[in-house]
Batch of 3 targets.
Target 1
Amino acid sequence: MGKPYRHLMICGCAFAALSACNKSESDTPAAPNAAVTEDRAADPIQSAMAAAPESIGRDATIVQAGADGSMKTLRAGNNGWTCMPDNPQTPGNDPMCMDANAMNWAAAWMGHKTPPANSVGLMYMLKGGSDASNTDPYGQKPADGKWVDTGPHVMVVGAESLNKLYPASASPDTSKPYVMFGGTPYAHVMVPIK
């Protein structure tokens, strides 16, 4: 479950996935700027909570991936949402928060399995995110050296009919709704909220 977790955290994909392990030095992006570094040094619980509106983050379960891909619960929650802190292995500050359906979708993606049918889920990434590829669900670093940077956004997963309404391309206009991983079982809509 290692490599897909990196992407989920990047997504957005936060839709980050379960581990930043197995990443070689050559895969590590350039060091972030000082402001991002300072924000990333924050408490992981605060980082994770920043992914969603305060009304969701304050009562969400907070989990963090270990180097071996295991998930550690940092704080139990009671509202059905699960948030993860920023993944320092990505170029952007990208914590994420998912409802239960989105967690099931993410587990299917990470396990290379078909996502649950008729199970729409929502993910928040209010800090934005960076993705290695908008077309490859398992891409680890950009083929052309350019990350797909998306500002604050929500992701709608498991909504096949919604995926058909928006463009899917390798270089999306991230200022408008677009489809990530179009043409794959993991296609989902990215909706900017800024």
Target 2
Amino acid sequence: MLTKQQFAPLFKTLDIDLIIADTNGRHKGLTGLFRLYREIKSSYNFDALADLHNVLRSRILLFLFRLSGIKYASIDKERKELKNLTRKDNKVLKPLLNRFERYRKVFSELGFDFKLEFKSIFPQPALLSHAILEYTGEKTQNWIGVAPFAAYQPKIYPDEKMKEVIRSLMTDLSNKIFFFGGGKNETALLEQWQEEFHGSINISGKLSLADELQLMSQLDVIIVMDSANMHFASLTGIPVVSVWGATHPFAGFTPWGQPDSNQVQIDLYCRP
């Protein structure tokens, strides 16, 4: 499995060889990409290649390996259908194939088929490390995660409305709120939220991704935007309530294993 260092924790419980692409260092740019190709080629003798990303970088790597005659398959991102779904007028509001089914089709093309029976990246409930327990303490309440941010503003439920949700949840003293974020700006803002909501705990910027995933696996539920945290949480097998703004579940990016009833949205002409 070829991935970036930041995503390595997603695969560490699997019995696989993990190849790390340092796209900001030794594997940056075309020269770095060719270096990565040579490093992989010298270490592995592949029977087939599955491109699950289908972007410029992965297509170049695939081209280099194809020169050796290796069997390959690439994910179909349905770009034309996505364009029809998101155009300004006369949108074609038709659900596209879920991303997980698209991944499966890649392996099917290579001769490998399987049932989509995945439950969690953890083979059993993950035990919380001392680093996590220093922030959380032992679990004696309902643990509710809130990840109120996303990469793009139109995906984000307005702050004041999200705070109304948090206030409502915190009226029940059996609930304990954990804030999850991403970037430095989000961490600073969530520190303010922690001050505002007495008893809440801001996790953003304090734990590694591996520890955040462990903590997520112990939550009773998490409220998220259409964001990376939505997908991270769904991979730990917990209920994920996702709030959809400018984007739409029809685009095929719904979180793994979550019922439609957990997707909060309203119909607007501009969506998606």
Target 3
Amino acid sequence: MKIPIYRIQNNVDSKSINQPDAWLQEIEKELGESFQEVDLKTYSKTSFGLIFVPSGGREAKFLTDFEHLPDRPFYILSSDHNNSLAASMEILAYIRNHHRKGEILHGSAHRIAKRINVLNQVAKARKKLQCGRLGVVGAPSDWLISSQDDDGVCYQEQLGLTVINIPMETLYAEYERGGYQKNKWTADLLGKRYPDDEMKKALNIYGALSRIVERNNLSGISVRCFDLLDSVCTTGCLGLAILNAQGIYAGCEGDIPSLVSMAIMGAVSGQPVFMCNPSRINEEEGTMVLAHCTLPVNMPDSYQLTTHYESGIGVAIAGHVPEESCTIFKTSRKLDRYFAKAGRIVGNLQEETLCRTQIKITLDDYRYFLTDPIANHHIICLGNHTQALQEFFSQLN
């Protein structure tokens, strides 16, 4: 998709001002995407775009445009020719004087392209989150003492996300209906030849959750899953793992801040996201082990089926996650604090005393986890997305 760019015009554009167009082509080459010059009306309707100041003498025209520009950060594209930077600085000062956010994109084509990619990535993420709906089936698990009393107001105000509560009885009723929609994930799982009675129950939970997601138009769901152990003698692990692979953010234990964290991480990264527990830190070795039973089916390069860890029943995935760069992330209940750090997955474990998918990662510092953590659950995805997450939160306030 082309990136919209609005060029601030001048009464008389000199023929000598030709350098900017060649310069724009350099940036396009670095971006791997094209710019699309648009008029003011079209620019104002976009979720992300650039304002191009090709030379000096554009300030007065910007003044006439200002009141028609959308209420979002201004990203001013400035070249190193024709007094473009000087005019851009005057314009940005005016923007700041009027209590609006803005930034000048200036420097090498490579540097500017790198910054545009991050900004575009965040704009797409924010658009994806807007009007999203997250369902919480049952109350948060009793042990999530730092993640309770979450009314979801700040998610609506700052992200456009709505959190809706769904009774456990709704899930039980859907489970009793039975059945699920077959797809490539269910076919692959059935091909693992796990005991039929356990697979039937686990896939019926998946079907039940899928119908709840569809009926309520949900983009994410979290379940008070431990209640399923006694009521229907299975777990939600497999159903949540399939939903995650389908692009529905799916978490367990009714953990709302973790579900929101999954939605943010997924929207920013475009990658499958894994909600897990930090289980062991070895500072001497420089490693941390994270584990859980709801790994997205499309995240590992291979997996096997086993039981849910704590109960020894149901069906859970023990996956082998690619050993490459990763990001670990969590946001607080009120979105006023977050943790995002890049690391590397260096191993996959198969220990008896941990949840079924177990990954070992390296980070350069573990003080956060031992001195000021944002609860226990954290979110992992492949790739380094820390810059985009930092930009995402910088735009919230």
